[in-house]
Amino acid sequence: AETKLIAPSILSADFSKLGEEIRKVEKGGADIIHLDVMDGRYVPNITIGPPVIESLRSITDLPFDAHLMIVEPERYVPDFIKAGCDMISFHMDACIHSHRLVDYIKSQNVKAGVVLNPSTPVNTLEEIIYYIDYVLIMSVNPGFGGQKFIPETLNKVKKLKKLMEETGRTDILIEIDGGININNIGDVSSAGVNIFVAGSSIFKAEDPAEMVRKLKEKALY
Ligand code: DX5
Ligand code: ZN
């Protein structure tokens, strides 16, 4: 069967009780915890960094997926690895030597991903695709939770699938991030996405655990 994983983004959780919030989604069957790191430069917001991630590490055994929306990610990646991240993605336009950074992340036994903004074409992956473990496709502009899914993103997923086939990298996982909810996750899943990040649809739901369950059910069709 195809890989289909739900990755709640704690960006929309209650920051005064992150531990509890993580336990809730874990009960619902969450597969990965998505951590949105923003520096106020690459994106307008500032969120969390390695100390918060490190203190959450003891709360759960679920993999931690750090989405670095920061300039010069290479300066901080070692700290995120020390904090206990299992997957790290960064935006290639924020980094001068992306290949070196991908190499470094993998040398530390951490999965390496690169992120495409809505305006970034799939063909920017043509060379790095031979080295990465996953691609994170933004289906909103990075910086904020609770935005609306950009429907053209589905075409992009198809283009990426094609590039994966052409390059023999069909093992790469496709992650999507932004505006994912119970109404669109089915179509997004059919397009070939493997990892579904969802922030507000999960943490603003009455019962976040139940929402994780429902999202997973729809992702598996
Ligand atoms: C946006 C972040 C997303 C965000 C998704 O910059 O990368 O992970 O938390 O939130 P929703 O699911 O509310 O669009
Ligand atoms: Zn994210």
UniProtKB/TrEMBL annotation:
Catalytic activities: D-ribulose 5-phosphate = D-xylulose 5-phosphate
Co-factor remark: Binds 1 divalent metal cation per subunit.
Record keywords: Carbohydrate metabolism, Cobalt, Isomerase, Manganese, Metal-binding, Zinc
Residues that hold a divalent metal cation according to the record: H34, D36, H67, D177
Keyword ATP-binding annotated: no
Organism domain of life: Bacteria
EC number assigned by the record: 5.1.3.1
Active site: D36 (proton acceptor), D177 (proton donor)
UniProt cofactor(s): Co(2+); Fe(2+); Zn(2+); a divalent metal cation
Residue spans crossing the bilayer: none
Record-listed substrate binding positions: S9, H67, G143, F144, G145, G146, D177, G178, G179, G199, S200
Biological process annotations from GO: pentose catabolic process; pentose-phosphate shunt
Pfam family, one: Ribul_P_3_epim
Keyword Transmembrane helix: no
Entry's family note: Belongs to the ribulose-phosphate 3-epimerase family.
Protein name: Ribulose-phosphate 3-epimerase
